[in-house]
Design goal:
The complex is a heterodimer of chains A (362) and B (352). Chain A has one domain: ABC transporter involved in vitamin B12 uptake, BtuC (Orthogonal Bundle), CATH 1.10.3470. Chain A is globular and about 75 Å long. The longest helix of chain A is centred in the C-terminal third of the chain and has 31 residues. Chain A has 362 residues and is an all-alpha fold. In chain A, 75% of the residues lie in helices and 0% in strands. The two termini of chain A are 26 Å apart. The N terminus of chain A is likely disordered. Chain B is an alpha/beta fold and 352 residues long. Helices cover 41% and strands 17% of the residues of chain B. Chain B has 10 helices and 13 strands. In chain B, helix 2 crosses helix 9, helix 5 packs parallel to helix 6 and helix 5 runs antiparallel to helix 10. The radius of gyration of chain B is 25 Å and the shape is elongated. About 8% of the residues of chain B have low confidence. The chains are: A mainly alpha (362), B alpha/beta (352). Chains A and B meet through helix 2, helix 3, helix 4, helix 13 and helix 14 of A and helix 1 and helix 3 of B.
Chain lengths: 362, 352
């Protein structure tokens, strides 16, 4: 991963190459899912047709795609920042929940003008998610534990903490394990009434632009990337490696926490278990697919959300379990990760077969 | 490299084949949302279940109702094991797909239903549970229906049977959670016993759980030690423990939730049952006859709540008692007998 980023910068593989990789991966995913669908005794063509039609059948399904991709994009952008320093933030879910619950507490209990509530909720959620993510980064920087394992474990801590909070001290009256709803006035307005999509998606576009700018046009971004390339070289060059590594994890966690706030204020209006359906893992997957580029993350998230929305509505019409979308996603990721290596080996083997003087040209 | 591109070209060809195929077929295939000119007969019904449809109880019964509708020619669909956080999306998904009736099977569906309903005035939403806090029949959307099942009416009938059958004049009652439906069942049962046997004493335990057979067993044992010769349980899995205790001590039982006769054919006199299957079936009929919406209060009157047949006790229950039960049932149906809805404990409380 570390090398990857820099390979992209200094020695970009041809555009054709990366498109080819992606196409191959998607084709592989389609073939595997065709086998999967056939084994269930359904017609793959009609299943795919239902998926595509389901996703684009009307405005509200398109808005649903936007609603679904909003948190994934935000978390994915965070993942890309952590990845710049060579950290993998698999703790997105835990950070998301910590951001969500702290934002909900602000939304429910802070009685202040709407703008102040929003700003306070954003700050608190970023802080909560950031601490959750930063802690994993801090342990990595100081005692060299794996930030991946720590972050995953902290997901569980967050999940059970939320389970406790929504069924005990913060539970709304009525017996359902959920917090009270935030007042109507502080809820984010919907893009169009009658959908789940809200104005949070606008933040997403701004955020992506911001991330791109920071990573490509600022010293800070350059320092992060340098650490990712070689921590020792960065240290030698006078970059505060440990501090910046922790910071990058803090930012990643902050993004996930912010996603939690956006979901609470825009979609659910309260916290309950299950508001994150492994957003954190999906986001990492998409960030890898997109090679940590903001635009790619947006496109990838929209693509995956389209699949999910399409599959959900397909499931109503055809007797195919929704887990097919997981199968497609997994095969795509698998192929994207594996394909360049296979190709490299393949080319290497080919080169060997050529006479020595021609090797360079091939 | 060349071979690789050949491979890619093959893949692309394959994909485009599918794409073309899709294009060619579209005009003939009907989409799920192409039902604009609905005929009343072709009502599309969707059921959203909070749990697995194989749970042998709450969800399975509702699914049986949906299958019944399918047999009658309705178009049906369902989703099982829907998390609370995913309810709203599921509602919207079905409403967007041209369904006429979307049923959320549980109290937790109430709030999302209220939120979604105004956006889909042509779709009917039914929630198998009471209205959430702050919602009344007057202020809720017209296309939403709730239900408040008068299960306690059946508990009253079971009480009459138990009162008539006890010899020691001591009856035990094992309840689940301390929630209105359980408390009202308990009180109505006590009233029923009083009706047929004013001398009988009822020892009641609210175990506080539907899931703990051990607790149910302990409670029933304690009641049996006090001399109870009939135990009534309304506590699902907890109640199974109570039944176990009764089987060990050869004590008569009033069951709950389903016809539990087969668990102890010689001991189970009758069971307090609600017919979730017909709850689902009836909603489609209510849409057709225009009575859908508001708060629906099914009970003994429309056959949604009842007590199960006597089975092996047919010869053991005196005709006099049978007549009392039949008369009370008639009176409830006619409206001349109103079973009291009481949320206080009127039994001999022996919790802890």
């Amino acid at each position: 991963m570390k090398q990857f980023l820099f390979k992209k910068r200094e020695n970009r593989p041809s555009f054709l190459d990366s498109v080819a990789n992606t196409c191959l991966a998607i084709a592989m995913a389609i073939i595997v899912s065709i086998i999967f669908i056939l084994s269930l005794g359904e017609n793959p063509i009609s299943v795919f047709e239902f998926i595509i039609r389901g996703a684009f059948r009307n405005t509200s399904s398109v808005l649903e795609i936007l609603a679904k991709s909003t948190p994934i994009i935000i978390i994915g952008l965070g993942v890309s920042i952590a990845a710049a320093t060579g950290m993998t933030n698999l703790g997105g879910d835990g950070q998301f929940y910590m951001g969500a619950i702290s934002a909900a507490i602000i939304g429910i209990y802070l009685e202040a003008p709407v703008w102040i509530v929003w700003i306070a909720a954003i700050c608190v959620s970023i802080l909560a998610g950031g601490i959750w993510g930063g802690f994993a980064g801090f342990l990595r920087a100081t005692i060299d534990t794996s930030e991946v394992i720590i972050a995953i474990m902290m997901n569980y801590i967050a999940l059970f903490l939320i389970g406790f909070l929504v069924s005990n001290p913060l539970q709304a009256p009525g017996g359902i394990p959920q917090t009270r709803a935030i007042p109507q006035i502080v809820q984010l307005p919907k893009l169009i009434a009658g959908s789940r999509a809200h104005w949070g998606i606008v933040f997403v576009a701004l955020l992506a632009l911001f991330v791109w700018f920071v990573m490509n046009r600022t010293v800070f971004g350059f320092q992060l990337l340098t650490i990712g390339k070689s921590a020792k070289a960065a240290q030698y060059g006078g970059i505060a490696v440990k501090k910046l590594s922790v910071t990058s994890m803090f930012i990643a966690g902050g993004f996930a926490g912010f996603a939690g706030m956006i979901e609470v204020f825009g979609t659910y209006y309260r916290v309950l278990e299950g508001i994150s359906s492994s957003f954190g893992f999906t986001a990492v997957m998409i960030a890898i697919l997109a090679r940590y580029r903001p635009l790619g993350i947006i496109v990838g998230s929209l693509l995956i959300s389209t699949l999910t929305v399409g599959v959900n509505s397909m499931q109503i019409a055809v007797n195919v379990p929704t887990s097919i979308v997981t199968v497609i996603q997994s095969v795509v990721v698998f192929s994207i990760l594996v394909m360049p290596k296979i190709r490299a080996n393949f080319q290497h083997a080919q080169r060997k077969r050529l006479p020595p003087d021609e090797r360079e040209e091939s | 490299m060349k071979r690789f591109f050949a491979l890619i070209l093959c893949m692309l060809l394959l994909i485009s084949c599918f794409a073309c195929d899709k294009g060619g077929k579209t005009p003939e295939q009907s989409t799920p949302s192409s039902m604009d000119g609905k005929q009343k007969k072709e009502l599309k019904v969707a059921l959203i279940l909070p749990g697995s449809l194989n749970d042998g109880g709450w969800n399975a019964n509702a699914y049986a109702g949906l299958q019944e509708l399918e047999k009658e020619g309705y178009k049906v669909a369902f989703t099982e094991s829907v998390q609370i956080s995913a309810i709203e999306e599921a509602f919207r998904n079905y409403a967007n797909s041209g369904f006429d009736l979307v049923i959320g099977h549980g109290f937790e569906f109430g709030e999302p239903a209220i939120r979604v309903a105004p956006d889909f005035p042509e779709v009917n939403f039914f929630v198998s549970g009471k209205m959430p806090d702050g919602v009344t029949v007057d202020n809720m959307p017209k296309n939403v229906g709730f239900m408040d099942m008068k299960e306690y009416e059946a508990a009253y009938l079971a009480g009459i049977v138990a009162g008539g059958m006890t010899e020691t004049n001591i009856i035990g009652y094992v309840a689940g959670l301390e929630i209105p439906s359980q408390l009202s069942n308990m009180a109505a049962f006590v009233k029923g016993v009083e009706f047929s046997n004013p001398d009988a004493k009822i020892y009641g335990v609210v175990t506080g759980t539907f899931e703990d057979p051990n607790k149910g067993q302990e409670a029933a044992k304690a009641q049996i030690d006090l001399g109870a010769d009939i135990i009534c349980q309304t506590a699902d899995s907890t109640g199974m423990g109570a039944i176990q205790a009764c089987i060990e001590k050869n004590i008569k039982i009033v069951g709950y939730g389903a016809d539990q006769f087969e668990i102890a054919p010689e001991l189970i006199m009758t069971c307090i049952v609600t017919d979730n299957k017909s709850v689902i079936v009836k909603q489609a009929k209510r849409i057709l006859d225009g009575s859908f919406g508001g708060l629906w209060e099914p009970g003994v009157q429309d056959g949604t709540c009842f007590i199960t047949p006597w089975h092996n006790f047919d010869s053991k229950i005196p005709q006099e008692i049978k007549n009392m039960v039949a008369k009370a049932t008639e009176e409830i149906k006619a409206g001349t007998l109103v079973v009291p809805y009481i949320l206080e404990r009127i039994d001999h409380k022996m919790d802890n």
